[in-house]
Amino acid sequence: MPDEAVFRKTHVPPSALARLTVGRNIPEHYKHLTYFDGDIQIVGSILDLISFDVPEGLILGATDRPYVKIPENDASARTTRDYLECIGIKDPRDYFNSGVLSTTRDTWISLSDKALRYFLQHSDRCRFHDQSALNAISVGHRLALSPRYNYVSTYAECEAEDMISPAVIHFTGAQKPWFADSRPWRGRFKESYAAILQAHPMLRDFPFMPDAEHMERTDRDGERAWKLLRLITPWRVPLRRRRIRRYLRETQFAV
């Protein structure tokens, strides 16, 4: 990465940019691609998702959380509005989460090349790194994927499982399912990761577990955010649920 490029420090490592460089390494006989982030759990059928043929030139992705939170009049909402405007997103419902994507091989090569160039030229705008760049260059070329196939943590915070019936849970944010005990997940998925380690002990050589201090801090911050949302601003959860319900009702999903 060039010295002048800025990579905002979060729980996301710079290696996340690597997927923008691998398109040409995918064998040509693979025409259709479906991508999943590493911090997901498939908990239902994804047959409709992987069977859908995305038209050439388009990318299939689920709308991310800004539409749920952006109407609120606080510093976080104002920062998010400024961020979306900076990368050319006029409607927050057009901003997608890049943790689950589907497209053709040729389209991915084209879009990822453009996204990498955008990031290198405008890294200061890319608050969420490669996701920001992909959104900036995909305006008008995205098909809406149902949140059933990318159920981000914001939906869990709003207890929206009854509305969405998730098939793919995406653990966005710092609270990852292989170590976090904080809400909204409360360690619900830790056993499945422990079972994988037991079945494949060679995986223990990979440094996927943060240090104890990091895990404690992450859980503490997660619990604090959960309590603040419900005790200090209790009206926000029902209002967010209403926005989610309206979005589900008004949006025509490709899948």
Automatic annotation (TrEMBL):
Superkingdom of source: Bacteria
GO molecular function: glycosyltransferase activity
Gene3D superfamilies linked to this entry: Spore Coat Polysaccharide Biosynthesis Protein SpsA, Chain A
InterPro entries on file: Glyco_trans_8, Nucleotide-diphossugar_trans
Name of the featured protein: Glycosyl transferase
